[in-house]
Every structure is written in structure tokens, then in C-alpha cells.
Amino acid sequence: MLNNGNFILASSDGSFRWQSFDHPSDTILPSQVLGVGKGLRSRLMDTNYSSGRFELSVGSDGNLTFYPVNIMTGYAYDPYWATNTTGNGSRILFNESTGTIYLALANSNIYFLPQRTYSVKDFYQRATLDFDGVFRRYIYPKNAKSTSAGWSTVGFQPPDICRNLTTKTGSGACGFNSYCISGGGNQSVDCVCPPDYSFQDPNRKYKGCMPDFAAQNCKGKFTLREMNNVDWPLSAYEHLSPIDEDRCKRECLGDCNCAVAIYQDDGQNCWKKRLPLSNGRMSDYVDRRAFVKVPKDSTNGKKKIVIVTTLVPMLLLLVCLGLFLWKKNRKQVPTLGIPITSSKESRGMDLELNLYDMFTIESATDNFSINNKLGEGGFGPVYKGRLDDGQEIAVKRLSTDSVQGLKEFKNEVMLIAKLQHKNLVRILGCCIQGEERMLIYEYMQNKSLDTFIFDKKQGALLNWRKRLDIIIGIARGLLYLHQDSRLTIIHRDLKASNILLDKDMNPKISDFGTARIFKADQNQEKTRMVIGTFGYMSPEYVIDGTFSVKSDVFSFGVLILEILTGKKNRMVHQSGYSMNLIGHVWRLWAEGRCVELFDEVMGCSYPISKLLRCIQVGLLCVQEGSKDRPKMAEVVLMLSNEGVALQEPKRPGFCIEGTPTEQNSSSWKQHSITPNEVTVTMLEGR
């Protein structure tokens, strides 16, 4: 270890075989040089030295940039600070004699931190890209009489990361649904949750916040909590102007999608914001007021109640009458055999959902008229309904002979009540009365995806652009289930009929009756009861009951292939070959004939390269080995960014291809694949 902090491995002749200065982490020291291709990567947290969310580097064009990085994939987002310089041979120098840091160009030096000189004889010095994305220069007196003196900040960039880091993608300096506060002599950064929101992980605030209440519904009773000098500038979906403050607040309260209203007096502007809130910041320069929508019963418990003395006896009488009626109704209306609130995972859920009575649902569905029946699945029939206020709903009614029983009913209620994402179907409430158990959902005007992609007439309504949007939407919903929600959830029955489409053809994942919650440190689980749909289930799940997030990735890969080809993953016979869809795609991929795969109803005018890329992503998802399949974070990145290089896919799982004779000689393969009209299958694990 040299006196300048450089750790070296030297040969007998004194030459350096390896030195730490050539492999920087998050810190640069005096006499160290960062050239083109070298940079710093922040640590994850103040006390966690894993690779973090920010990098700085000198590009080959001579520009020094700071930019956020996706932790899972390493993908670099747009820079949030740069010197905007050009030139060959640029490099960052930490001058050992003066202690100054600068970007050395061919003809000039750019001092991007304060030039004040601190002698290396008197001070230890370093410059660190900290976990919050701020590049700070530190000094520590060598003659410090106390170890508590600490490192002092003497310069930093950017001047205000909360303001600088406003990217079109990602959550900003802090996580989604939080806001950033910066200031002080060292430009300290803090991430804070809005009222009635809590951190997903208090030890990792960058993951953002989640509401402490259930997903909003139009029948819920909400109020607004005011905050000054706060905004989430990239989360607006509607701008109203001119408008006064009271009307701005009313507009948000009356809009199911509105989570926050932002009002600016100057110009009488109002912005309605939806979740997830991104790029939040609080500062004096934010000349706006935020009104955060929260349930009425959560407003700090300081309500003032005025009781007129003469009304006390009447109120007591009403209370007694209410208790009497409540006890009477409890005897008449049986509840679930096991209370919904009894399990740890579903604690408090009865307060998060509307509880509809049987009369309301019967009235809404015209007494479950056959004309209102939308379809039927393993759970039971699904009906369209209309509530008294005009809201359209979908009612899933658990049939008495349903393959899915009480456990699946409770499982679906417990899970979906805690989930909130634009690509997941939204539950409005439930009805539990006598032997009846029903789930009430938002109504999807265009029903399910399978009614479009497997029908030539309906499929013509989905051009290539809309199909790609649907694929990406499903991917984002699945990423939320696997990684971005408060729970890690494995769906286990992802298929075309469980993807619902709203009036704008936006996809929403539905049917969580067979879903499972994984613990934070859990990678997979094994079951003796395999439940799912043949054609979509992964090999490891069918063969030995093992499932994980990679099982859902396999199902998603099948969906990609079905959406682009318009064909089901079933056995087909073509040109003397018998194969399933996966085998058909794999064969044409190997022969370079994938253009023949695309659904003919899309027409001829589509970007072949984009669709071929999607086919390749689909094949990566259905690879036989679960470890070979990408995670959903990687899938979303591959679908959203054409600059990301794709690996060559390995042979898929359940890839059935060959002549009829070859197929007959492989009875195991034939048994493993059956038509995917079978919605729920139960097999005893070996």
C-alpha cells in the first residue's frame, strides 16, 4: 500500500502488475487519474457497499457525465449533470500538490468543483460519488485532536440533485411515491413519504413509498391533506386552467385516478397526478401546493366533535338500536368459515374493500341474467353489472361445484386488494352472504385478450403497434408482481384469457386465485398439487411441482408468441411435421424464416426488426432451463430499449417438433403438452 492510498501488486523488478487506482469504486484519491472508460459507481446505501444507483464517467467524446443506473440490469438512464465538453483524451485529475480536482482537456482544464486549495500535508482528501448521487469533495485534518472531527465537505456537484435529476423514466432522486429534500452545506439529501404513505423498506428509502390504504375506488370517502412547496412534475395526466383552488380540489376528489392535486396561484393552474408519483421534490423554488388524497378516517384523529347536551339520550338510544340490529344481522348473514382478517397477510383487509350486499349485486346484474353473462372459468361464472350510480362492474360468482374453493377466493381477495398498478385489474369489493361469495371488479369493455388474438376478425383490430403495447403492458404488470410491489407474487396461471383489455386496449392481468406470495429471501417453492393451464406451464412446474418467478416468465414467453402469431400453443400439423407453437417458432427461428410467423391479419406494413426482436425475447423466456430465462426487469428493458443486446436463445422447454412417426415414438413428450383450453389441471407430484 503506497502512501497515496494506491494498493499495488509489484513484480521483483518493481513494475506494477496490478494497482487499485486502475479499478476505482466510488472514490478518487489525490494523484489518481480517471481516463476514458474509467468512472465511479456509488455504493447502494451509506453502510451498504454493493453497487449503487449512480455512476460518473468520462466519455470518448470528452464529456463528463453523472447518470442514474438501473441496479438490476445496469442500464444507464439519461445524465442528470454534465460538463458538456468535447475533446479527445479527456480525463479527471486529482492534483496531489494542490488538492484540486478538474477535467483535463486538450487545450484547457475544467474545474467542476470549487478550486480552494487544501494542502495534502495538512489534510487527508478524497472525492466520492455518494449513494445519493452527489459527487462530494471531502477533507480531514491530519492533526485532528479528536476522532469525532469527521470528514468535512468542501465542494459538491450537482448543486441540487432533487432539481437536477428529473428523468423521463425512473423515479428520480428518490423512489416512486416519495419526494426529495436537499440542502445544507454538504447538499444532504433526504427522501420523505407523503401523508399516509410509508416506505416499502425503511432501510432502503430509494425504493420509494406505498399508500397505507387500499387502492382508491369511486365509492370511498377521501379528503385532501395540504403540503406546501411540493410537486411531482412528471406524474400529471390532466392540466386544468384557469381554475380556482376549491374547484381544483373537488376535481381531484371526484376522480378515481387522481392521487394528488397540484395547485399554482399564478395563472390559476391545476394538475391532477396519478400513481406512481415520480421525481418528487420539496423546496422553496417549488411555488405550488400539493393536496394529497387520503381516506377521511386517517386525517390525524384530531377531529373536533361537538355534542349538544339535549341530544345525548337520543344518541345513546341509536347506539343501542344499532348494536341490536348488528347482532341480529350477524346471526342471519353467515361470514366466511375463517375470517378474512385472521391471517397475518390479510390483516385489516376488511377495511380496504367495499362490502356489497346481495340485493345490490342481484339488482346490478338483473338477477344474474344469462344476457349479462360474460363467461365462465374455474372460479365460476362472470357477469356484467351496473350499479345505481351508473358504474359498470364485473361480478365473479363462486359456483358451488367450482374447482376453486374458499381458499382460492380468500387468496384472490387478499392479494389483489393489496396491489395497485395500471396493468393489474382493480377490485372494487366483494359480497359474502350465506353461501354466496363474489368478487366485484372494474368492468373491462373489451373482455379478454384471447377473444382478439385467436379470432381473425377481432384480431384485425390489433395492429402491430397495439400488440407490442399489450406485450409491454403485461410485462410491466408482471414486473410489479415480482419485484416492485410490497409483496413478491407468483401468478401461476398467466394466459391469454386472464389478460383483460379496457376500452383503450390497455392490458390488465387478472385471476389471482392460484397466486402465491414469496418471502423476501425465497427463490422457489415446490408443491404436490400442480395447478395451471397446459401450454403455459413451465417444464419444472409440470414435472416436479417447482415454481418461481421464472415460471411466470415462461408463461409470458408463450403469451408473446401467441400475440404475434395469432395461434394457440397447441399441437399443429404442417408440411409433414407435428409440433406445438413453441416448436414451430423454434424451427422457423433456426431456419431464419421467422417472418412467416406473424399473424397475417396485421397486414404487411410493420417493422420486421421490432417484431423479430420480440420473437427472440419470447424464445429467451421459454428456454428449458429456468436459470437461463431472464428476469422480468430484464425483459422490460429488452422490450423497451432496442439498444440492449439480446443473447441467442437456447432450446425451449416443451419444444415439440418432428414427423408424426417421431412424435409417436415419444409418448412422454406427447403427454406433457395438451391443448390450452384446459383451464385448471391438478396432477399429483412424483
TrEMBL record:
The stretch of residues making up the signal peptide is none
Keyword annotations for this protein, in alphabetical order, are: ATP-binding, Cell membrane, Disulfide bond, Glycoprotein, Kinase, Membrane, Nucleotide-binding, Serine/threonine-protein kinase, Signal, Transferase, Transmembrane, Transmembrane helix
Protein location: Cell membrane
The GO terms this record gives for MF are: ATP binding; protein serine/threonine kinase activity
Could you tell me which residue ranges the Protein kinase domain spans? 368-644
Tell me which SMART domains the record gives.
Answer: S_TKc
Q: Which organism does this record belong to? A: Elaeis guineensis var. tenera
**Per UniProt, what is the membrane topology?**
Single-pass type I membrane protein
What protein is this chain from?
Answer: non-specific serine/threonine protein kinase
**Top-level taxon of origin:** Eukaryota
What Gene3D superfamilies is this protein classified in?
2.90.10.30, Phosphorylase Kinase, domain 1, Transferase(Phosphotransferase) domain 1
UniProt main location, coarse: membrane
> GO cellular component annotations, sorted alphabetically?
plasma membrane
Could you tell me which InterPro entries the record lists for this protein?
A: Bulb-type_lectin_dom (IPR001480), Bulb-type_lectin_dom_sf (IPR036426), Kinase-like_dom_sf (IPR011009), Pan_app (IPR003609), Prot_kinase_dom (IPR000719), S-locus_recpt_kinase_C (IPR021820), Ser-Thr/Tyr_kinase_cat_dom (IPR001245), Ser/Thr_kinase_AS (IPR008271)
Recorded catalytic activity of this chain's protein: L-seryl-[protein] + ATP = O-phospho-L-seryl-[protein] + ADP + H(+); L-threonyl-[protein] + ATP = O-phospho-L-threonyl-[protein] + ADP + H(+)
Q: Name one Pfam family in it.
A: B_lectin
Membrane-crossing residue ranges in chain numbering: 305-326
Q: What is its EC number?
A: 2.7.11.1
Q: Which gene encodes it?
A: LOC105049604
